[in-house]
Design goal:
The structure is a single chain. By secondary structure, this protein is α+β, with helices and mostly antiparallel strands. The protein has one domain. It is built from 10 helices and 12 strands. The strands form 3 sheets. Strands 5, 8, 9, 10, 11 and 12 form a 6-stranded antiparallel beta sheet that branches. It has a 4-stranded antiparallel beta sheet with strand order 2-3-1-4. It has a two-stranded antiparallel ribbon with strand order 6-7. Helix 1 runs antiparallel to helix 3. The longest helix is centred in the N-terminal third of the chain and has 21 residues.
């Protein structure tokens, strides 16, 4: 089984993030639209051969219980609020994640996929992401430095062969709104302490000087000596003069790794919350999804 095509490719320049609910009585139409979306993706991949165009269609737990078979996506569950509301839950039925090296290709695919679903879905949120210079976030730091590379991407992001849901992946989508004016009042050395890396050269700070509630301190987790890795495909979003921030999306072969990082960030493990939540970032959404392999998506 093959993972969906927005999971493995890295360094996308453009992204589209759509969350939607299935309308009453439209289950069969959604199944047909998933099959149609795979065909439309393939047609646009041929039209934009250099764009590394990718698509993920994933499902919240309630929706997947309608479509899934026994043993597939068995870890999926609804997102629940964390940190006394610091991480709100905004669970929807369907996630459509598109990424590409070209914005025109990403937009063309978004139009095609939404046309395939037609009136079967009610779109709740839509955001467009873009890549900044040196793959930095709006906070000025390089984003995704700890991402697995090469063969490790599939090992981390995709459920392995031998499982009933091999080729599938668990997904987290969170929208983080940034307060860049507040962040700008924090001097660079303290910004670096909050992140756990240097700003200009993107070097990890030594553990002896890294704050325990720095971002790196909150998400660089190990269990029994093994790192709890995830694959990030996040992109900045928004306007210079309006709302802006980060569309954080992560894929993993197990929901456990994703949830462990969230519990640590939002103070559920030891009462310490990520310093980024104090100085720049506010979570405004949160949802878990299961992305079946391409073959299952095309044969729901």
């Amino acid at each position: 089984m093959n993972p969906q095509t927005a999971i493995i490719p890295d360094h996308a320049k453009a992204g589209v993030f759509i969350e939607a609910d299935i309308r009453i009585g439209q289950t069969e139409a959604v199944k047909a639209a998933c099959r149609d979306s795979v065909a439309r993706l393939q047609a646009l991949q041929a039209k934009f051969p250099q764009a590394a165009l990718g698509l993920t269609v994933a499902f919240g737990s309630e929706a997947w219980h309608i479509f899934g078979h026994a043993g597939e996506g068995r870890e999926i569950k609804p997102f629940t609020p964390l940190g006394n509301g610091l991480a709100p839950a905004t669970q929807q039925d369907v996630l459509i994640h598109i990424q590409a090296l070209q914005q025109d290709a990403a937009l063309a695919l978004a139009q095609a996929v939404l046309a395939a679903f037609g009136d079967s879905l009610t779109v709740v949120t839509e955001e467009h992401g873009y890549r900044l210079y040196q793959e930095r976030g709006l906070d000025g730091f390089v984003d995704g430095t700890e991402n697995p590379q090469d063969q490790a991407v599939r090992e981390v992001a995709v459920i392995p062969e031998g499982q009933p849901d091999a080729g599938g992946s668990y997904v987290l989508l969170q929208k983080y709104r940034h307060d860049l004016k507040r962040w700008g009042k924090v001097d660079v050395p303290h910004q670096e302490s909050c992140i756990g890396r240097t700003k200009e050269t993107d070097e990890e700070l030594d553990k002896s000087v890294r704050l325990p509630d720095s971002h790196l301190g909150r998400v660089d987790l190990k269990e029994n000596g093994v790192g709890l890795k995830i694959v990030r495909r996040s992109l900045p979003y928004g306007k210079i003069t309006g709302e802006h921030g980060l569309m954080f999306i992560a894929y993993c072969h197990t929901l456990h790794n994703i949830e462990a990082q969230l519990l640590s960030m939002f103070g559920e493990t030891d009462g310490k919350t990520d310093l980024l939540l104090k100085h720049i970032s506010t979570a405004v959404s949160g949802a878990y999804y299961y992305a079946p392999p391409v073959e299952r998506l095309a044969a729901l």
